[in-house]
Amino acid sequence: MAVLRGELPDRVPFSPNIGQWFDFHRHNGTLPEELQNCKDELDAMLALGCDIFSRRLGNFVKTVCHEHETVTESLGDGWTKTTIRTTVGSVSKLEKFERESWTTYTYEHFIKDFENDFPVLQFVIEHSEWAFDEKAFLEVDKRVGDNGVVIVPFFQSPIKLLHNWAGQEAATFLMLDFPKECYRLFEVFTAKVAEVAKQAAKSPAQVFCTMDNLDSLFHSPPLFRQFALPFYQKLSEIFHAEGKWLFSHACGRLWALRELISEAGLDGCEGIPHPPIGDLPLHEAKRIHKGFITVGGMTAHETEISGDNARDRIFAYVQNLFAQMQPLDRFIFSSG
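The structure corresponding to this sequence follows.
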């Protein structure tokens, strides 16, 4: 909490994201001996003595009503087809789970044609309601205890919503070709998310993070300003009124978005990738605004070094990074 309050902590918090690594090795029976009895990544982080600052510990937003039907079919060999049926039409997406990377990849998105498929997204948003699940949050928060802070993963920006439904390239063209239709949909989405934010802001939860994969390549400054800025500003207004913090998961190129991130009212970005993976050095991220909190440093090619003197080279990278980040306030050393 000292970092969140802008105070100089007695040490830099160490909060690696080990979820994908843990799930892969647990499934394959290759976890280190000291972690073999851990049931999930939180158990593992606690066993390793990590400082908890994670968005991966649960889903604390639940759907309370909707008027669409979702059907999921297993097609074998990791392939899954998901179909959403509504009174205005149906859409489907095709995904494959890859065991080698322990990740699901989308091969076909829901929206393939604006005229036929976009109305389905409109229907789903307009006829769905969500609520904050305080009970689920408190259960996880109790497990974490004094070992850190549970981040509430909180929706995604309207741009990312369209990415999820149409893919990044098609979503960009949709916003350019049909700006009025997209803006009207995003207004409805923002209003509904804001109602959930008002509930969540009254809860014991302290930190919220929109799940955006923020990247200037697909959240270009003009699109960000037109379609995402009102969303962030509304949420930051609600959360700040209750003394809470709002982050965005920002694992892409951020240099071109620095001023907009500040204007959006974000208290920090989580998962900032160190160059050359990203393009915003962490010490520059600290300057986005006076109280900006930087969460990153391990999303870097230096942390994947192997071979001769790997340990020494990794330590040299960390020492250089920490020297650049002085003073070591508003900084959580994390892989995001």
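The chain has two domains: 51-66+128-334, 67-126.
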